[in-house]
């Protein structure tokens, strides 16, 4: 036997084998039935299937999902003789295992040592454990599961090309918001620690700030952050009655600095408060609020969740305006502090949908993205319907007047969903 080359140490060239280039040509495979249709379709790992032990040419089983009928076929074939002609004849009569034609393209695979029949002894057979891993359930069940998944639309597909939408991270962002939203909440009874103010004074202040916000044409985020700053500050710091309005205008100044592009100047806020405070008092209160809140302005308010949940509801402008009208009615009410921002947002949209449609409406998409089923929203929604019913009455009508304008679609003039008041909890 001759040496092939000085770079192939220890490798000898068998007699009768033609060498072409750097590889050895395959011997005649004699068109054996069962050869794979596609070259290199089988891995090089040796088989340990007990049904093939003792056979020089192991049974060739095509890889396919293992159904019950196919499993029975494999069990029967594991006891059959491993001769290739016998395998070929058996496959001709078996409707479950299609016949595979040999292909001359097999020479594209890496050459291996062949046995006397021309087949590689290293060709692996799928083991019983491997076929179990490929086992699938009933195709009809799989099809129904896929159909159920497809019924829930991808609400972010329309923004896939918008880098500002952060489609790749939006689910993680809102998951983080849910984890930290408790940090933006206050105790529902914090007014008990105040000795000179009460919840009615708070309602008067917020109703006035909503009008100021509307007059200055500020962003929606600014209003929600302003009220959040006020509540978190009042929970930690006692305030005199005559300083409550100062807390309100200063909180709005801080929210404007955080959210707005064009920030109102201090003199504008002093003027809007009828010059009740000086510039130095406003700046001093600003320092006190920031120190009390430890400069934490990044909290998820109901507005953050409103934008996401409205997208999940596939809202139009009418639903959006009515949802924000209901939500701003809740900002005035002290009793609504017991609900989380995400729950308030989901309940506002649910109540608005029921108001416009005239019946209960909360689909699977809304439930998926809000993580609130309908029964979790009913308590909060019933309170919102009550606020909607009395929005135009009493002394605090700032929200009603704002949403009675044409700019806000006259959302305040819609009929409240009174049927929700009779809904069982």
Automatic annotation (TrEMBL):
One GO cellular component term: nucleus
Disordered, as annotated region: 44-63, 75-130
GO biological process, one term: G1/S transition of mitotic cell cycle
Molecular functions per Gene Ontology: cyclin-dependent protein serine/threonine kinase regulator activity
Alphabetized UniProt keyword annotations: Cell cycle, Cell division, Cyclin
Top-level division of the source organism's lineage: Eukaryota
Pfam families on file: Cyclin_C (PF02984), Cyclin_N (PF00134)
Entry keyword annotation includes Cell division: yes
Domain Cyclin-like residues, every copy: 207-291, 304-386
Cyclin C-terminal domain: residues covered: 300-417
SMART domains, per the entry: CYCLIN, Cyclin_C
Composition-biased stretches (Basic and acidic residues): 80-95
Family: Belongs to the cyclin family. Cyclin AB subfamily.
Name of the protein: Cyclin N-terminal domain-containing protein
Source organism of the structure: Musa acuminata subsp. malaccensis
Lineage of the organism: Eukaryota, Viridiplantae, Streptophyta, Embryophyta, Tracheophyta
């Amino acid at each position: 036997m001759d040496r092939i080359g000085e770079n192939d140490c220890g490798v000898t060239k068998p007699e009768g084998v033609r060498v072409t280039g750097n590889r050895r040509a395959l011997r005649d495979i004699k068109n054996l039935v069962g050869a794979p249709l596609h070259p290199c379709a089988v891995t090089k790992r040796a088989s340990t299937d007990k049904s093939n032990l003792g056979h020089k040419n192991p049974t060739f089983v095509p890889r396919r999902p293992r159904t019950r009928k196919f499993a029975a076929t494999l069990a029967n074939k594991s006891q059959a003789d491993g001769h290739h002609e016998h395998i070929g004849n058996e496959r001709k009569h078996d409707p479950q295992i299609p016949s595979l034609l040999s292909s001359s393209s097999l020479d594209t695979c890496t050459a291996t040592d062949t046995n006397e029949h021309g087949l590689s002894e290293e060709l692996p057979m799928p083991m019983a454990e491997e076929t179990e891993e490929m086992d699938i359930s009933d195709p009809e069940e799989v099809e129904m599961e896929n159909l159920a998944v497809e019924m829930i639309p991808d609400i972010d597909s329309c923004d896939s090309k918008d880098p500002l939408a952060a489609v790749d991270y939006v689910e993680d962002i809102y998951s983080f918001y849910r984890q930290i939203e408790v940090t933006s909440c206050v105790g529902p009874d914090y007014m008990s620690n105040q000795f000179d103010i009460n919840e009615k004074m708070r309602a008067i202040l917020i109703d006035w700030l909503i009008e100021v916000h509307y007059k200055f044409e500020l962003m929606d985020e600014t209003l929600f952050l302003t009220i959040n700053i006020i509540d978190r500050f009042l929970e930690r710091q006692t305030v005199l009655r005559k300083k409550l309005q100062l807390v309100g205008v200063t909180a709005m100044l801080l929210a404007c600095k955080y959210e707005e592009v064009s920030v109102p100047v201090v003199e504008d806020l002093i003027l809007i408060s009828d010059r009740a405070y000086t510039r130095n008092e406003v700046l001093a209160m600003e320092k006190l609020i920031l120190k009390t809140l430890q400069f934490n302005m990044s909290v998820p308010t109901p507005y953050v969740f409103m934008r996401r949940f409205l997208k999940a509801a596939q809202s139009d402008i009418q639903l959006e305006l009515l949802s924000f009208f209901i939500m701003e009615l809740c900002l005035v009410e002290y009793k609504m502090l017991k609900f989380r921002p995400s729950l308030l947002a989901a309940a506002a949209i649910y109540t608005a949908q029921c108001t416009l449609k005239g019946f209960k409406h909360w689909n699977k998409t809304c439930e998926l993205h809000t993580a609130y089923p309908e029964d979790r929203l009913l308590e909060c929604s019933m309170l919102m319907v009550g606020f909607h019913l009395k929005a135009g009455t009493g002394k605090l009508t700032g929200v009603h007047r704002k949403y009675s304008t044409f700019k806000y679609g006259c959302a305040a003039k819609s009929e409240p969903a009174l049927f929700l008041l009779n809904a069982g909890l």
